[in-house]
Amino acid sequence: MINFKEDEKLNILNHSCAHLMAHAVKHLYPNAKFWVGPVIDSGFYYDIDLADEVLKEEDLLNIEKEMKKISKSDKLIKRIELSKSEALDMFKDDPYKIDLISRMNEEETVISAYKQDDFIDLCRGPHMPSTKSMKYFKLLKVSGAYFKGDSNNKMLQRIYGVCFETEEDLNKYLEYLEDAKARDHRKIGKELEIFMADDLVGRGLPMLLPNGYVIWQELENYIKEKERKLGYQHVMTPCVGNVELYKTSGHWDHYKENMFPKMEVDGEEFVLRPMNCPHHMMIYSNKLHSYKDLPIRIGEIAHDFRYEASGALKGIERGRHFCQNDAHLFVTPEQIKDEFKSVVDLIFEVYKDFNITDYRCVLSLRDPEDKVKYYQDDNMWNKAENELREVLNELGIEYTEEIGEAAFYGPKLDVNVRPAVGNEYTLSTCQLDFCLPSKFDLKYIDKDGVKKTPVVLHRAILGSLDRFMAYILEETKGALPTWLAPVQINVIPVNNEYHLEYSKDIYNKLNELGYRVELDDREEKLGYKMRESVIRKIPYSIILGQKEVDNKTISYRKCGSEETITVSFEEFIVLINKVINNKEF
């Protein structure tokens, strides 16, 4: 994905185009006043005060026409340097510019503005030499934005756009945006009836519909089966915890602003839990352990709650409630390397099953200068970071290091995916922790009879099931593999009068064998039923007409294919079992 801020040429081009857009807006709306118009990762925007005018999407076409007119006129773009007093005088009738200029240091700052014909605005630059340089642009959308991002201030109108050097590059990017719209899991989730949200329930609290819950259960069963084979023991813990639990863990001091407010009940203070490690620490401490018991691997599909900013909420990718595929591995220092390798192997085994190939590994470290975010223990941090770095090097894993991205209690390996839509994010993680076991005074009896403190590996393979669902929906455009699809097979009689009885027989057999199957016995034309099956992205449609009835066969069509194949029922079962068991896409 292109990053307009990081590409120097595109950065200058898009910043210049933002001024071109503002110039056009000023021609069409003479009373317009402008706040800021920066380049962002995905192009540019400008925040504009249009008094009582409210822009609609169709108004963007008129602005584009005026931009093209100004572009063709080839107006020179000139840099002007001003003193603070000169700048205040030049923009004396513009409260937004006065606000900017007033906060500038008069002695140290050279104030620059850029002028093109009858339009001028404050700007650091640099800019293109003339308006003719901006030929290939597109205004994408308009939305509201509070002045300075403060909801107590006036609502401005924000116009987004992009600009490229060539028409070909612009068209490619617009095609990418159309593809991104089609892949947006919120759109797919609505169309395929996977999840819903309603403000009456609460923002950031999506609800899985029956189709979505099937996917959720399949993912839960999938990862739990893999974990059980590796010796994990699954538990269930409460969604709330006493505030003292999080004070003991340190989360109350380091993470409180991301938690929901505390609740008082019967003289105790509780909070919706944002993570599960404190609960799992208490489960470990429930009894005394020998070194022979370790490693102990505690896993849970846990419901967690975090107070995400409203602007960051995005369907099931980022909500205020989510379900983590969480686990905590309690190990001796000698077991760190083997257990960490096992976690990494599991991550990449899962990625192979889901055909995930576009990712990068990050060693997330603390920022030693940050005395607030991180638990203060230099020896612990140095030991943990060196231990993790050594293990990664021995495993031959390629990774980059990022300062300031560690958890407050320890360094971690993050595996970041590059999704089909939007910027990369962390899907899987494994964190090394010497801190919390000490805070909870966890012990095991070593072979010499001495009590020692275990080390904990915090790990999540699917991350949160919700985010993983969003990722897979966008990667597949909703055409999920057969093993994961809410409905795997759709049985369609060509004519209910003649073929429904045989269709019911096939449906019953498939249902008894445990497949997720539907029978479409509506009085509709075959073409209509087939189109709807494709729209719903059901992996296999079985079409049963007179030929199939007479020969006791079935004809099927795979989603995305125009080919209809006729086989015996037994052959179809062999085929679909292979597809499901191999988790074929």
Compact summary:
By secondary structure, this protein is an alpha+beta fold. The chain is globular and about 80 Å long.
3D architecture notes:
- Helix 1 crosses helix 2 (59-72) and helix 6 crosses helix 14.
- The longest helix is centred in the N-terminal third of the chain and has 21 residues, at 8-28.
- With 585 residues, the chain is of the alpha+beta class.
- The two termini are 24 Å apart.
- Helix content is 36%, strand content 26%.
- The strands form 7 sheets. It has an 8-stranded mixed beta sheet with strand order 11-16-17-24-21-20-18-19. Strands 1, 2, 3, 7 and 8 form a 5-stranded antiparallel beta sheet that branches.
Strand content: 25-35%
Count of DSSP H/I helices: 18
User: How many beta-strand runs?
Assistant: 29
Show unreliable segments.
none
Structural class of the helices, strands and pairings? alpha+beta
Strand order of the largest sheet: 11-16-17-24-21-20-18-19
Residues in helix, %: 25-40%
Average pLDDT number = 92
Radius of gyration: 30 Å
N-to-C CA distance = 24 Å
Report the biggest beta sheet as strand number plus sense, adding barrel if it closes: 8 strands, mixed
Question: What's the overall geometry?
Answer: globular
